[in-house]
Every structure is written in C-alpha cells, then in structure tokens.
Write a structure and sequence with these properties.
With 114 residues, this protein is mostly helical. The protein has helices at residues 2-13, 20-25, 28-43, 47-70, 80-105. The chain starts with a helix and ends in a 9-residue tail after the last helix.
Length: 114
C-alpha cells in the first residue's frame, strides 16, 4: 500500500506539471485519485470508509470517462525537470501524510508516525 500511495501522490503532484509523466498518463489527478481511493477501499472495510472512498472513486471514474469523451487534453512540450519535481514533491507529501496520519485521521499507518 505504501508504494501505491507514493505513486498516487506523485500522480497528483504531476497533474499541473508539464512533464513526461503527465503526457503518459494524460489525466494524472484522476488516476491518482482512483489509485488513492482504491487502496483505501481495499484497506478499510467499515461502512463509513466504504461510503467516503467509494464516493471519491465513483467521482474520479465518472470524471475520467467524461474527460476522455470530451478529449480534454492540452498540447504541451514535456520537460524532465517537471517530472523530477512531481516525483519528489509526491513522495515528500506521502511521507508527511503517513507520518501525521494518526494525528489527522486517527489511524497509524507507519511505525515512525506521530
């Protein structure tokens, strides 16, 4: 789950960067949200979590289908520096959220968490 969450945060960070990652995934914010919600649905089995993360997953899937149908893609010239920024920022954000997860949401997900 930690690797999937790292990828999810990196995809979200790449959403507004003009890098090769965004060109390859096309809609990285939605892909990251789908991955994030899917991992949380698999890890949590209670009703409240299913409603919350299921709603995020449903929204992202519907929005992705809509974006694909509308062909909502802007042309740009990719830059490797944007990929590096997205990956470093995504992993940094994931480590911060994992560390503070118990304080923010009541569940400790890593041994070094607060």
């Amino acid at each position: 789950a930690h690797y999937a969450m790292s990828a999810s945060f990196a995809l979200v960070a790449a959403a507004n960067r003009r890098g090769h990652l965004r060109r390859a995934v096309v809609h990285p914010l939605l892909a990251g949200t789908i991955l994030w919600a899917g991992v949380h649905l698999a890890a949590n089995g209670d009703r409240a979590s299913t409603v919350l993360f299921g709603a995020f997953l449903a929204w992202a899937l519907v929005d992705l289908a809509s974006a694909i149908a509308r062909r909502a893609v802007r042309a740009f010239e990719p830059n490797v520096a944007h990929d590096v920024i997205a990956v470093v920022a995504g992993i940094g954000a994931m480590l911060a959220f994992a560390t503070l997860h118990r304080l923010l949401f009541g569940v400790q997900v890593v041994s070094f968490g607060l």
